[in-house]
Amino acid sequence: MRNNIYENFYCQSENELISIFNDINTNNITKIGKNKQRIIFDICIQYYRTKAMREIIKKGINNILRVVSLKQDISPEKIAKYALWPLPEETANAASSDNYYIYIINNATNTPLITCDQPVINCTTTYNTSEWEHNLELYYPISPSKAILITKTDTGTEWSAAMVEKFNTKMIDASYMLVFTNSQKRANIISEAQLNNKAIE
Predict the structure, then answer these.
(1) Contacts of 72 (CB under 8 A, 6+ apart)
(2) Taking a C-beta distance cutoff of 8 angstroms, is the pair 51, 117 a contact?
(3) What is the pLDDT of residues 173-195, one digit of tens each?
(4) pLDDT tens profile 2-42
(5) What is the rounded distance in angstroms from the CA atom of residue 135 to the CA atom of residue 157?
(6) What is the distance in angstroms between the CA of the first residue and the CA of the last residue of the chain?
């Protein structure tokens, strides 16, 4: 029953994002400003629901348990599951302040945007540590030519090939096991050293 509640919650969030993606891909962005907080909340849900984020939370919980030396058996997996539940709302509230803006990125270069099994990334942190990063810059590529960026910094909305490469590298670094691209040429360019035993599809 509880799993059904979670899945219904995630399904509703995904449906809302699909509607926004369709608007973005048709250059209809009038809803973005009107629904800023809800859009950021839905993106934060996608950010936290991945296996990579659960593993990071679990590592942090394990570190805490080692420090406090609790005698009873406590499952970091179970704690992580419930700890993740309030985080999207807390993060969305922080990113919904007037200091953060939603930018719709247009990529007109010959270099496609790539994505991975961590579809939303925080560009201010690394993903090989259990240390928590309180700064935010959420990046969400939704197609080879469109992305959403939630940030305090004006990066512009028309990116150069160099900027696309920069954010593609961030996606590779943040990936857990898989990197996705629609370009065989791009797949061939991504080096084994970058992938670090991850797969590309």
Answers:
(1) none
(2) yes
(3) 888 888 888 877 777 766 555 66
(4) 556 667 877 888 888 888 888 888 877 776 777 888 899 99
(5) 21
(6) 34
Tens digits of per-residue pLDDT, 76-119? 666 666 667 788 888 888 887 768 889 999 999 999 999 999 99
Residue at token pair 């490469």: 165
Alpha helices, DSSP H, located in 35-142: 36-48, 51-68, 76-83, 87-95
35 Cα distance to chain centroid = 19
Joined together, the tokens standing for residue 48 give 């936290």
Helix (H, G, I), strand (E, B) or coil at 60: helix
Best CA proximity match to 80, nearest among 107, 116, 51, 100: 51
What's the rounded Cα separation, in Å, for the pair 188 and 119? 21
Query: Which residue in 135, 131, 134, 149 sits closest to 64, CA to CA?
Result: 131
Neighbours of 123 (CB within 10 A): 21
CA 120 – CA 138 distance, rounded (Å)? 7
H or E element at residue 151? strand 146-151
Q: Are 40 and 95 in contact (CB under 8 A)?
A: yes
Q: What is the DSSP letter of 148?
A: E
